[in-house]
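Narrative of activities, Objective 1.

The group set out to show that a structural description can be obtained from nothing but a protein's sequence at a throughput compatible with the screening campaign. Below is one input-output pair from the validation batch, recorded exactly as produced.
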Amino acid sequence: MGLFGRKNTESATTTATLPVDPALAALTGDYTIDAAHSSIGFTVRHAMVTNVRGSFGEHEGSLKLNGSDPSASSATIDVKIASVDTGIGDRDNHLRGGDFFDAEQFPLMSFRSTEAAQLGGDKYRVTGDLTIKDVTKPLSIDLEFNGTATDPYGNERVGFEGSAEILRSEWGLTWNAALETGGVMVSDKVKLNFDISAIKNAA
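Output recorded for this entry:
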């Protein structure tokens, strides 16, 4: 079942009679991301030999899904930078400080979608504006639609998981340290990971 669709460029005679999947149309509505059952994290190479993984424990966002016209769907996410957690307190404090995110001056990282396209099956690419510190640049996130469910409390849920890669230097995160053996302490490339569960708002 598709959720986001690429706009069809074929003639009106071939698109005017395309039926709308009733199950897809039923997803139309506004959703709130359930932070307790979602995760936003990252993976970055450390000292050229291993990966450090972390996550942001506090975030909020919304989805506006239009099953009858998927191109009209959109998403917003705001992440509280101070909630970064890599499992090491000193490292987390370094990330919050001026060498990296400067969480006191720039408390939020945000994403605002601008378009979406279907890659095939339940795989999609959502493109939007990612803001870190005072820099806003385009970002494309590859997502898989995991389906829908009604939980034991009667909430209608949708689920997505996906990832994207960025060069942190493009958002002004340039701190590094040279290694005696060559290379640097922290790689420029960072993988962002998303696992999203969202609840449909009451009508």
